[in-house]
């Protein structure tokens, strides 16, 4: 949890993947965290489920669940995470399986003032009152919106590279 833009009127949070801009009254509480979803899987087929956000973690909810198959009672499998998909090929014959396993899926996201937004990578920028983000310099520009933002670290690297070549 981090508070941005104290003493300002507006906070703009820009999520980078997918590109999404959220404008709220300042100050804003912004954090990387996302949301939790439940997924109930009938055990008559392999698990192969895709979500709209990157999966951070998966767990059984509640723990120690079981399902029935022709050979007896089996523990519910914990699926493998691959980006936005969970998978598990946990059985060699699904036709005799009965029961459902319930999972808690933690998805990547960014929370702004308590509301979760999707994010594949958890990266975002924050600006206050439509100004440049921290770590950049505001320059006047003749095109809309009348200014541009230049990343200070990039400019510093370029200046250092030029200085090395001059020496």
- Biggest pleated-sheet summary: 4 strands, antiparallel
Q: Name the beta content range.
A: over 45%
What form results from the Cα inertia axes? Answer: elongated
Distance between the termini: 45 Å
Number of DSSP helical runs: 1
Helix-strand sequence: EEEEEEEEEEEEEEEEEH
Helix coverage percent = under 10%
As laid out across the biggest beta sheet, the strand order is: 1-4-13-14
Q: Write down how many β-strands occur, each being a DSSP E stretch of 2 or more residues.
A: 17
Low-confidence parts lasting 5 or more residues at pLDDT below 50? none
Structural domain tally: 3
How would you state the average pLDDT, rounded? 87
| Radius of gyration based on Cα positions | 24 Å
- Structural category is mainly beta
Description:
With 167 residues, the protein is mainly beta. The protein has one helix at residues 152-166; strands at residues 2-4, 10-16, 19-25, 28-32, 35-42, 47-50, 55-60, 66-69, 72-75, 80-82, 85-88, 100-107, 109-112, 115-118, 124-128, 136-140, 147-151. The chain has 1 helix and 17 strands. It has a 4-stranded antiparallel beta sheet with strand order 1-4-13-14, with no helix packed on it. A 3-stranded antiparallel beta sheet has the order 3-2-15, with no helix packed on it. Strands 5-12-7 form a 3-stranded antiparallel beta sheet, with no helix packed on it. A hairpin with a 2-residue loop joins strand 10 (80-82) and strand 11 (85-88). It folds into 3 domains: 1-34 and 108-130, no CATH class; 37-106, no CATH class; 132-167. Helix content is 9%, strand content 51%.
